[in-house]
Amino acid sequence: MNCVPRPSCDEVSRVTAQQTTVVFADIVGSTALYEAMGNERAALAVTELLNDMSARVLLQGGRVVKTLGDGILCVFSEPTGAVRSMLQIMREQRERIALPVTNQQLSLRVGIASGEVLDVAGDCYGDAVNTAARLCERAAADEIWATDEVVRASSESAGALFVRLGHLKVRGKAEPLLMYQIEWRADEAAEQLTLHGGLTDLGALQGQNSAQIQFSWGCSKQAFVSSDLPIHVGRASDAHLYIEDPRVSRLHARIDWHDGAFMLTDLSSFGTWVLFEGSDTPVQLRRDSCMLHGGGELALSLPFSAPDAPRIAFRISGEKLKFG
Predict the structure, then answer these.
(1) Torsion of CA 163, 178, 297, 282, to 10 degrees
(2) HSE toward the beta carbon, residue 155, CA cutoff 13 A
(3) In this structure, are residues 235 and 243 in contact, taking their beta carbons and an 8 Å threshold?
């Protein structure tokens, strides 16, 4: 194995940090591909995809810093080129796997962040590099996640739609980051997306005095307006949502009103699962946060696959709630 020498202190000290947009793009499903196709054919498929991604990055004015096994790290002088290149890469890959002659189902996930970056001996270092890597880790297959800085600096000519995810905890960061998902599917229903112009919250309601969230579990129902928050969920007798189940932590979760949205934070020993209406895939939280929007259910300490998991239904509304 060839070892790449790390930059010396002198090399680092001579470099000036520059504002840069960093992209991490990772191939999802390559492990299963190697098992199904064998090492040689799978390696060829992965290499071809990496080469196609690199070519698209170059066409949009970016630079491929290095390949990382099944992914690439690249940088752009401004975010619009980064967004455009990733949109095109996602769309081209969907067209590629739809071809009858294609027998591989590789997906991509992407993280994009902007900030000051040090370019040392062709490699790059800085907080934006670490943040882009963390966003890539958090994104699911076929998703592009980006920071607020990327979204606000992207030109509308990028042709992107931005879905606000809210403030989410990122490993290694002291404070939650405001993050967006960049929607690349041109045929996605427009009412499910957040357009660049207003950067309106997805699921958040305008006007703090009118935003309300309703909960129901067992025979109990309870509603709170945004000014009532924060509220706590748990087995403790003084919890706002008291769940009498020994499997639920005494202080299981907290719900805050932050930046125009209801935010759920798991505080428990065994986790919280969130299943939004219209989705088949629950979001698992372990000392983590996510934005609540629309309606759905929470499962406490046990996943939804457990038939007896403690559950709480929720719904967010901008009108006064009435219980019948």
Answers:
(1) 70
(2) 7
(3) yes
Distances (CA, A) of 65 to 78, 88, 148: 16, 19, 23
Cβ partners under 8 Å of residue 13, min gap 6: none
- Tell me which amino acid residue 140 is: A
- In angstroms, the CA 121 to CA 76 distance is 17
pLDDT for position 81: 92
Residue 321, pLDDT score: 35
Count CB-CB contacts under 10 A for residue 222.
16
What is each CA distance from 231 to 45, 135, 224, 278, in whole angstroms?
50, 28, 9, 26
pLDDT at 93 (0 to 100): 87
Q: What is the pLDDT of residue 184?
A: 84
CA distance 278 to 317: 17
Q: Where are the beta strands (DSSP E) in the chain?
A: 18-28, 63-67, 71-76, 107-120, 123-125, 143-147, 161-168, 177-183, 212-217, 220-225, 231-234, 241-242, 253-258, 261-266, 272-276, 283-285, 289-292, 295-300, 311-317
Tens of pLDDT along 152-204? 888 665 567 787 777 777 777 778 888 888 888 765 544 444 444 334 343 33
- Indicate the pairing of strand 231-234 with strand 241-242: parallel
**Residue numbers of the chain with a pLDDT score lower than 70:** 1-17, 99-104, 155-159, 186-210, 318-324
| Distinct helix (H) and strand (E) counts, the chain | 6, 19
As to burial, measured by CB atoms within 10 angstroms (0-12 exposed, 13-18 middle, 19+ buried), residue 118 is middle
pTM for this model (two decimals): 0.59
What b/e sequence results for 26-37 when a residue is b if at least 16 CB atoms lie within 10 Å of its CB, and e otherwise?
A: bbbbbeebbeee
Q: Tokens 């309703």 label which residue? A: 214
**Locus of tokens 């019948």:** 324
- Whole-angstrom CA distances from 155 to 81, 99, 150, 197, 276 are 9, 32, 10, 10, 31
pLDDT for 244: 93
